TrEMBL record:
Binding annotation for xanthine: 20, 27, 156
CDD domains: PRTases_typeI
Protein family per UniProt: Belongs to the purine/pyrimidine phosphoribosyltransferase family. Xpt subfamily.
Gene: xpt
The keyword Transferase belongs to this UniProt entry's keyword annotation: yes
GO cellular component labels: cytoplasm
Pathway: Purine metabolism; XMP biosynthesis via salvage pathway; XMP from xanthine: step 1/1
Binding site for 5-phospho-alpha-D-ribose 1-diphosphate: 128-132
Entry's Gene Ontology molecular function annotations: xanthine phosphoribosyltransferase activity
Name of this protein: Xanthine phosphoribosyltransferase
Length: 189
C-alpha cells in the first residue's frame, strides 16, 4: 500500500534491536485518516470471506482492529494480556512471547464471544516473529472457529514469522513488508 509505505519512510525511525518506531501514526499517536484507508484496504482484500469477527491482541492491535471492524460491520474482540476481574471465568488461553517487551504473556479471550460459527479475520499492527498471531490462531482453534486469514499493517519480513505462517497454509496479507532495517535504512520487499 503506497500511502502507508510513504508514511513509513517519512515518519518511521529505526531503533536498536531491529525495532521500527512508527508511534507517530500507528501505535501510540494514531493517524485516523490513514488508519481508515488501511481499514478500507483490508475490507477490499477480504470482502468475499463473510467475516463475522475481527480478533486482535492488546494493546497495539486494538486501534487498527476497531477501525477495520467498521468496514466489515462486525465486532472486534481483543485478547487480553493481563488478569482482570472484568473477564469471564470461562476463557480460551494461550501464551505469547512479546518481542518488544521481552516477556511471556498468558492471553485470554472469553469463550462466549468466539465459537464454531465464527469466521475470523486476525488483525494486528505488526508481524515480526509471528508469536502474537500464533497465540491468536491457537485461540481460534480452541473455539473451533474458522480462520480466514490475517491482515497486518507492517510485516518485518526478515524475522520470518509471516513466511512460516504462509508455509503452513495460512493467508497473511501485509500492507507493507520490510526486508531490512540494516544501517537504519528501511528497505521494502
Ligand atoms: O510477530 P511478533 O513477534 O509476535 O510481534 C508482533 C507483535 O508485537 C507487538 O506487540 P507488543 O508485544 O509490542 O505489545 P503491544 O501491542 O502492547 O505494544 C505487535 O503489536 C504485535 O502484536
Ligand atoms: O512498533 C513496533 N515496532 C517493531 O519493530 C515491532 N516488532 C514487533 N512489534 C513491533 N512494534
Amino acid at each position: 500500500m503506497e500511502l502507508l509505505k510513504e508514511k513509513i519512510l517519512k515518519e518511521g525511525r529505526v531503533e536498536e534491536g531491529n525495532i521500527l518506531k512508527v508511534d507517530s501514526f500507528l501505535n501510540h499517536q494514531l493517524d485516523i485518516e490513514l488508519l481508515n484507508e488501511i481499514g478500507k484496504e483490508f475490507k477490499k482484500r477480504f470482502k468475499n470471506e463473510n467475516i463475522t469477527k475481527i480478533l486482535t491482541i492488546e494493546t497495539s492491535g486494538i486501534a487498527i482492529g476497531a477501525i477495520t471492524a467498521q468496514y466489515f460491520n462486525v465486532p472486534v474482540l481483543f485478547a487480553r494480556k493481563t488478569e482482570s476481574k472484568n473477564l469471564d471465568n470461562e476463557t480460551y488461553e494461550s501464551n505469547v512471547y512479546s518481542y518488544t517487551k521481552e516477556k511471556n504473556y498468558k492471553i485470554r479471550v472469553a469463550e462466549r464471544y468466539l465459537n464454531e460459527n465464527d469466521r475470523v479475520l486476525l488483525i494486528d499492527d505488526f508481524l515480526a516473529n509471528g508469536k502474537a498471531l500464533l497465540g491468536l490462531i491457537d485461540i481460534t482453534k480452541q473455539a473451533k472457529a474458522t480462520l480466514v486469514g490475517a491482515g497486518i499493517v507492517i510485516e518485518k519480513g526478515f524475522q520470518h514469522g509471516g513466511d512460516n505462517l504462509r508455509n503452513n497454509g495460512i493467508r497473511v496479507d501485509s500492507l507493507a513488508i520490510i526486508d531490512s532495517l540494516e544501517d537504519g535504512k528501511i528497505v521494502f520487499r
